[in-house]
Design brief:
Layout: E1 17-22, E2 34-39, E3 44-49, H1 57-68, E4 73-80, H2 86-104, E5 111-118, H3 125-137, H4 144-150, E6 159-167, E7 170-179, E8 192-197, H5 203-215, E9 232-237, H6 253-273, E10 281-289, H7 292-304, H8 306-313, H9 319-327, E11 340-343, E12 346-350, E13 353-354, H10 360-367, E14 371-377, E15 383-390, H11 394-401
Helix pairs in contact: 1-2, 2-3, 7-9
Length: 405
Amino acid sequence: MAVGPGTLPEFFPVAGVRLGIASAGIKTPGRKDLVVLELAEGSRVAGIFTTNQFCAAPVTVARQHLATAQPRFLVINTGNANAGTGVQGMSDALETCSALAREAGVEAAAVLPFSTGVIGEPLPLGRLVTALPAALADLSEDHWAEAAAGIMTTDTRPKGSSRQVMIDGQRVTISGISKGAGMIRPNMATMLGFIATDAHIEPRLLQELASELGDLSFNRITIDSDTSTNDACMLIATGQCGAGEIDRQSPGLPALREALAEVFLELAHAIVRDGEGATKFVTLEVSEAANQDEALAVAYTVAHSPLVKTALYASDPNWGRILAAVGRAGVAGLDLDAIEIWLGNVCLVRDGGRAEDYSEARGQAVMDQEEITIHIKLKRGEVRERVWTCDFSHDYVTINAEYRT
């Protein structure tokens, strides 16, 4: 199950990026589960990673390599997270980089590793290394769609986004892929995201954009409130478009930021739409808050409530569950008589109780839709925040109960 059509876009090739896909048989024999990205020399890479303290070995290695060398290759395997694997896991992550480096003729520090899949199982390193030559032989600038499928785990469909924008008279391309369907609650989530542009972006600005745009997209989605061990989102700038370097003072920066933001958000939304067992795509909007912290506290409390999420699955306008979640969000001094709670264009709560003009039929009409907005007005200030989530269905339990079988 998933919400919306989920068709991949037409991917615009990004000058300076080639992608190769191969089958290593890491979890399922014959499945394309190994992806390699080759970056042109001089490319710049910025990233954000999971905040889970039990972070996976590849996360640790990717952070270390990103701090010491200019990345030339990214290698991603699915089917095994290489997390909770101790000293052996670190050794396997490092050897993955070394093996690819030997094949490609670069230093090991120029390789960033990423893994996703089952936690606590040893990485089948031999199978992964054996498949690396096939992935390198498959490198092509046109393999974005194949790579999007190659990084899937419990995803039911590949996820991608692509844009082109004119900056300083030059056409700039942005393309990206993401994966994730469960164990999603930033910061970050069981998700991987890889966004590349052929723009030439000043390094510190590149990291600022990765952090800023990641915070407003991948760090605003939640499936089940679980933060994974392996999350990473990488922003790559190859500098191959022919335009000059973009810094904070560049007149083309607003257009580039807007296009990048659209790609980040589209990839993040695709994860929610494909949430494990999802049948609803839900926007939680909290407005008129005093500050960002309280707005997000309310939004996430509602988004994480199993009672709210199961009501959404049942298309049951049980607005009392939303009201109760708002009340336990930990925001001190709420004026309950001032708060309004809306379901789409239907006001549920006003003046401390059910809105006088609310009817079950009007609420039901909204709940029957696939895409729903829950809007909570706190009447305390001018801050507005959005979080995106989905419902909890029977399939969510089945998928996670049978994950290792």
